[in-house]
Specification:
By secondary structure, this protein is mostly helical. Helix content is 80%, strand content 0%. The longest helix is centred in the last third of the chain and has 68 residues.
Length: 414
């Protein structure tokens, strides 16, 4: 809490607090604390103390559906289209009343969304930084409807205030989690980017002073581009973005300042190839890191969702088995037959982890390999035993033949 209070002290720190708080609340969803309809346990517990439980459940179910967010997204896209069409003066003049009614219609939808979400759970709504940002945009959008634009002096202010309606497009950030990851990454790069920009500004300031004294002479130099510090900094900004630097160099060459090429080349090498690319590299690195973190969060959410579904399936199957056991008095075989008939082919079947995990499968395959090795060794032993027995049998046969031959010879002599 002390850390959050310190962060809120400055304006930029407050916006960073809103973005990071919103990302944490939106990205890290607690599936384990949700009931069968997906509502959080705190919300479900809060609904029990409400007197308007039926209306509350009805509104809560609407706001938690994906179709509701899709409708808000379509509304934002249509609002952007109407704002773009309103920039055409002829079309705005012909359909002025239609555009006014359409703007009030869009504001009614945004207000309805705000009231419904606050009604469901005001505490959770204001803890989400993106919801706070949406509420600020909604308040700003109401300013043109109540501002007085009667006198001519206020017309210019009204045009500026009405331009704030384009901020409604930023509501898409609170609906698309991929955009939230990018926004968080951009805010996290601010610290490193500020250091790079400070170094680049110091480099531009030094080269601006050098350029002013070398090329800013009103008589022999180029005062339009190097006549004062402001012009020199603007010229160096064109050089650091490598936009039109050839025209600037041609002006100096036309004045006979051929040595200015060294100045231009050195500044482009330092400003563009080193500092500017360093700025881009820091942003890309942080975006890659945030994108990887976002993918890991999505993976954890999917795993948590699967665990929740598995628990729900097991709980439903337990309740069905318990109901069957209480309603039957026969033997267990008959009970299981009736349970099989009650199951549908679309029902999920939860397999025990010990027979479906990769560790068990690896152990089982290793056991099969050991069995194959043992079988091969036994076959070798059996073949060796057969060979030995065949040799013994062959020796016995030879001895018997020799014995029979000796007896025959003795009989012939007699």
């Amino acid at each position: 809490m002390e850390k959050n209070a310190d962060v809120k002290e400055s304006g930029s720190g407050y916006f960073r607090f809103i973005i990071e708080k919103g990302a944490n609340q939106t990205a890290l969803r607690r599936f384990s604390d949700r009931d069968a309809v997906g509502r959080s346990a705190a919300t479900a517990a809060g609904s029990n103390v409400r007197k308007d439980t039926e209306f509350y459940d009805y509104i809560a179910n609407i706001t938690e559906k994906t179709l509701f967010d899709g409708m808000i997204m379509v509304t934002i896209m249509l609002n952007a289209l109407f704002v773009a069409l309103e920039t055409d003066y002829d079309l705005k003049y012909k359909l002025f009343g239609f555009f006014a009614i359409a703007d009030e219609f869009f504001m009614a939808i945004y207000t309805m969304e705000f009231l419904m979400k606050v009604y469901v759970d005001p505490g959770v709504y204001w803890e989400n930084g993106y919801n706070v940002f949406d509420a600020i945009i909604l308040v700003i959008s109401f300013v043109p409807m109540f501002a007085d634009g009667g006198d001519s002096s206020a017309m210019g202010t009204m045009r500026i205030v009405r331009s704030f309606r384009s901020l409604r497009l930023l509501k898409t950030v609170s609906l698309i989690r991929g955009l939230q990851a990018l926004v968080v990454a951009l805010f996290k790069t601010m610290k490193s980017v500020v250091y790079v920009l400070c170094l680049m500004f110091l480099l531009m300031f030094i080269f601006a002073i050098i350029g002013y004294y070398y090329f800013g002479d009103p008589n022999t130099g180029d005062p339009d581009n190097w006549g004062d510090l402001g012009c020199a900094l603007f010229t160096l900004f064109s050089l650091v973005t490598v936009d039109g630097w050839t025209d600037l160099q041609q002006n100096l060459d036309a004045l006979g300042m051929n040595s200015s090429r060294i100045f231009t080349i050195v500044f482009i090498l330092l400003g563009y190839f080193i500092f500017f690319n360093m700025f881009v590299g820091v942003v890309i690195k942080e975006i890659q890191h945030e994108t990887k973190r976002f993918e890991n969060e999505v993976k954890r959410e999917r795993e948590a969702s699967l665990i929740q579904k598995k628990r729900a399936i097991i709980q439903r199957q337990k309740s069905e088995i318990k109901t069957l056991i209480q309603s039957q008095t026969g033997n267990f075989t008959k009970l299981m037959e009736q349970f099989k008939k009650s199951m549908r082919h679309t029902d999920y079947t939860v397999v025990e982890d010990r027979s479906s995990s990769m560790s068990f499968i690896g152990i089982y395959l290793t056991t099969l390999d050991h069995q194959d090795t043992t079988t091969n060794k036994l076959q070798q032993l059996y073949s060796e035993a057969i060979l030995i027995l065949s040799d013994l049998l062959e020796e016995d046969l030879i001895e018997m033949e020799q014995k029979a031959l000796r007896e025959r010879n003795i009989k012939m002599r007699a």
